[in-house]
Amino acid sequence: MEVVSSQRRREIIDALRRGTVPQRSLDVFAVGLERFDTVIDETLEAVANQGAVFKAVRGEYGSGKTFFGRFLQERAKRRRFAVAEVQISETETPLHRLETVYRRAMERLSTIDTFQGALRSIIDGWIYGLEEEAIAEGCDESRLVARTDELLEQRLATVSRVTPQFGLAIRRYRHAQVAGDSATAEGLIAWLSGQPHIGAAIKRQAGIKGDVDHFAALSFLQGLLVVLRDSGYAGLVLVLDEIETLQRVRGDVREKGLNALRQLVDEIDAGRFPGLFLIITGTPAFYDGPQGIRRLEPLAQRLHVDFAGDPKFDNLRAVQIRLPGFDPARLVAVGRRVRDLYAQEGDHADRIHRKIDDACIERLASGVTGQLGGRVGVAPRIFLKKLVSELLDRVDQFDNFEPTRDYQLTLADQELNPTERSARAKSVDDIELDDV
Length: 436
Known about the structure:
Elements: H1 6-18, H2 37-48, E1 53-58, H3 65-78, E2 82-87, H4 98-107, H5 119-136, H6 141-162, H7 164-179, H8 182-192, H9 200-206, H10 214-230, E3 236-241, H11 251-269, E4 276-282, H12 284-288, H13 297-303, E5 320-322, H14 328-342, H15 349-355, H16 358-371, H17 380-397, H18 403-406, H19 418-424
Parallel strand pairs: 1-4, 1-5, 2-3, 3-4
Helix pairs in contact: 1-17, 4-10, 5-6, 6-7, 6-10, 7-8, 14-16, 14-17, 16-17
């Protein structure tokens, strides 16, 4: 196993201890995704050459959809893409409110150099590149600002054709920077990020009006793609996760959300977003069920793929791909990788490997799966949480802790999510149902 830095190791272990998917460094313990490597790289190469790609990912709960999305983002960042992940939800980020989706994407915009909120650093880097270009032309200090502004106007011509308001805000942002007006500069970056409630004085001074609405959000996304290209980035990978939540909203809201998704797919096909790789993730019920994309026939036609055959022969270049579910061997393999990662630092590596051996990991995996009704696909989150917080941490802290003697696996309702509690249910009456 590759040796990782202390910070990356700590981020991974802390996330697993909390029962969440780490934000980055997923390649360290990814298992079973190797079959997607070639297609991912091919797709990223096509997008980097100013293509635009839409991909739908399907998988049952526990198959690793969120993990796959973040794994893909990490791979993309190493190829100099900017990335963003948006969790679609009924209340906070409804899909039909594209201005909200855009705002969340800008809040989570990430590059290889900036973890989140990277829009300002991208624009600053773009402007800095213009200054470097002016210096390379032999421009002296007295002419540097003026020549940089001239280059800025030349570059903004492309952006302004796509979205005039976006270009205007960048122009005013540059002027505020030169004047040392940090409040105006910060307000304009917030406005470009889609944040509401920007002061009227800032907008009046910049000559912009209103907030970023549903239609402006798509134009601003175009403007961002132009800036990314001129800044030396390969493009943008945007992941819309848990899109199946559309099935639980009111009928009219669901129709609006599906129509917004259809609009995005059509715009990508029409070439409006060169440099964009858009991925959605959802359960099979969203793609095949009566409350999912089948409610909008044009969208269902665009995303349809026949999955009747053997999964090993799936066409990974199709518009929709499916993730294989976890099986016992894969679950144990992930557990071994996490153990090895945990033991990379500290003074107790030998003790960890001796007491948390492969047999111990297999027993824990079998025990968790057994208590969840034998549903391996539901087990990974709680299995890894138990492995880290109840076995690895204790062996690391207490030299006399013996897993076979001192540990008894228990699953409390409070630590399980609804899907895990339903899998654990002993009778039909124990199964939790969504409120109608």
